[in-house]
Specification:
Radius of gyration: 22 Å
Structural class: alpha/beta
CATH class of the largest domain: Alpha Beta
Amino acid sequence: MEKITEASSVYNDLEHLSTKALLEGMNAQDQLVPLAIAQISKELEAFIDACFERMKQGGRLIYIGAGTSGRLGIVDASECPPTFGVAHGRVIGLIAGGDSAIRKAVEFAEDDTEQGWKDILAHHPTPLDTIVGIAASGTTPYVLGALQAANEAGLLTAGLSCNPGSPLAALAQHALTPVVGPEFVTGSTRMKSGTAQKLVLNMISTSLMIKLGHVKGNRMVDMQLSNEKLVDRGAKMVAAELNIEHETAQQWLLDHGSVRKAVEAYQKQHNNEHI
């Protein structure tokens, strides 16, 4: 397997470049990322549809990775409850070394081939669950061990990496491999590879949440009202949907807890009044 993620940068003598040249070089490389993702659109579509079939029956989406890859999975998972109103635990992010590794790297945690599946077992997986292994290199033992066990247990699996022909791609039922090329700083996969992973995870979770009914039109009708900004945004959604004053919409929203529930309650009451 050719490790493209470890290949030498197309740039050299970085320490001698001006700030302008550094920024232009990084930006030029970043523009390759969405092009690489476009090349795997069919693979993404197939995986998302397969995952949806399980999630609509109550299955969960579980991300697992090490280092930057693990952190990106945790970020995406943690944003699903406030954004889409799903229960905590519907989308889960796991990282080698446990939660302490989110802020500080845990030495050699990614080299344990058995710990990944142990971490998944703590969440009592079922065959309706889906495991997405995330590893830019496609060779991380923690992730490979987890996917191998998940396959054997009958779970749906996907592998998100940036090296074609990697062990992760071979092991996963759905290989998602955006090939972004060598990093601007050789081997620094938190750059283009990390950006590609974040974009793909956005696409996976957002598509699934839309298909599961948590978006109406283009609005997050189930979002959690966790701060004043979101209350104001939600009130505007309710006002626009029902054609009522902002203050009235906000009161209905606060009384019922979500845009969806506020709209449904208002419509039910006013429909009953006209019967």
